[in-house]
C-alpha cells in the first residue's frame, strides 16, 4: 500500500496528520503543495483539487488500497489512520472506552473549532494587537489554556493517554504563540504538557522543519521552539 499525504510547509492541519502518521508508524510519502508569498496555496495541487474540489485545502490523504481511499480534513484522516492502523500493532491515539473516546474526540474538535478560530482572527490583526478584537481573541485563548490546565490536574495528557487531542492542541497552540497568544506561567501544568508533547520524536520531526522554514524566511519562531 502506498500512502500519500499532501500538506503545506506552514499547514497546522497538515502537521496534525503528519505527526499522527509518524506516531503510528505509517509509511507515507509527504507531498508539499505549492505555497507562495502571501501564504497562498497556489497553484492548487491536482490531487488536492481532485479530492477536495470545493474547499481545495490540505491536508489530503490518498491510499491505493481497497479500491482507493482519498480523504480531506485532518480529523477525518485521524479516524481513518486509527481504523487502518489499530492497536496493539500501532500506537493507539484514541483512548479506550466509549466515554473516554467521546471526550477525546470532543477535545480534538474544540481545539480546531473553538480555540483555533481565535488564532485565525489574530492572523489578520497582527498590526493591531491592542485593538479590541485582538485583545478579545487573546483573552479567549487564555481562557482555553486555563480550561486545559484544569484537565491536567489529574492526568498527564488532555484526554488520558497521549493521543489525537494532544496532537491537535499542540499544533494549534504553536500557531497561537506565533500570533501573540502563547501560554504563560499562569498555566504551569500546560507548559509542562507542552514540553512533554514537544519532546516526542514524531512531533519534533514535523515541527522542527516548519520552524526552520519560518526562520529561513526571516519570520518569527516561538521562543520555546528556538533550539
Ligand atoms: N478543517 C480542515 C481545515 C484545513 C485547512 O484550513 N487547510 C489550510 C491549510 S492549514 C488550507 O489548505 N488553506 C488553503 C486555502 O484555504 O486555500 C482540516 O482539519 O483539515
TrEMBL record:
Coiled coil: none
PANTHER family cross-referenced by the UniProt entry: GLUTATHIONE S-TRANSFERASE GSTA, GLUTATHIONE S-TRANSFERASE-RELATED
Superkingdom of the source species: Bacteria
Ranges for domain GST N-terminal: 1-89
Family annotation (InterPro entries): Glutathione-S-Trfase_C-like, Glutathione-S-Trfase_C_sf, Glutathione_S-Trfase, Glutathione_S-Trfase_N, Thioredoxin-like_sf
Record's protein name: Glutathione S-transferase family protein
Gene3D superfamilies in the record: 1.20.1050.10, Glutaredoxin (3.40.30.10)
Residues of the GST C-terminal domain: 97-224
Pfam families (alphabetical): GST_N_3 (PF13417)
CDD domains linked to this entry: GST_N_family (cd00570)
Species per Swiss-Prot/TrEMBL record: Acidovorax cavernicola
Amino acid at each position: 500500500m502506498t500512502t500519500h499525504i499532501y500538506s503545506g510547509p506552514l499547514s497546522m492541519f497538515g502537521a496534525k496528520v503528519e505527526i499522527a502518521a509518524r506516531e503510528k508508524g505509517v509509511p507515507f510519502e509527504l507531498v508539499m503543495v505549492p505555497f507562495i508569498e502571501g501564504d497562498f496555496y497556489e497553484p492548487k495541487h491536482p490531487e488536492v483539487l481532485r479530492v477536495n474540489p470545493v474547499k481545495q485545502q490540505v491536508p489530503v490523504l490518498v491510499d491505493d488500497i481497497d479500491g482507493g481511499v482519498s480523504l480531506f480534513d485532518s480529523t477525518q484522516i485521524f479516524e481513518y489512520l486509527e481504523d487502518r492502523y489499530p492497536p496493539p500493532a500501532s500506537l493507539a491515539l484514541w483512548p479506550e472506552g466509549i466515554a473516554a473516546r467521546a471526550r477525546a474526540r470532543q477535545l480534538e474538535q474544540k481545539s480546531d473549532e473553538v480555540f483555533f478560530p481565535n488564532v485565525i482572527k489574530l492572523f489578520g490583526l497582527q498590526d493591531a494587537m491592542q485593538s479590541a478584537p485582538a485583545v478579545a481573541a487573546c483573552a479567549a485563548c487564555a481562557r482555553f489554556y486555563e480550561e486545559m490546565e484544569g484537565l491536567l490536574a489529574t492526568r498527564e495528557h488532555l484526554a488520558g493517554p497521549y493521543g489525537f487531542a494532544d496532537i491537535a492542541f499542540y499544533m494549534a497552540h504553536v500557531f497561537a504563540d506565533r500570533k501573540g497568544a502563547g501560554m504563560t506561567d499562569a498555566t504551569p501544568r500546560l507548559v509542562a504538557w507542552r514540553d512533554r508533547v514537544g519532546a516526542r520524536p514524531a512531533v519534533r520531526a514535523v515541527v522542527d522543519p516548519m520552524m526552520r522554514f519560518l526562520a529561513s524566511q526571516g519570520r518569527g519562531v516561538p521562543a520555546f521552539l528556538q533550539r
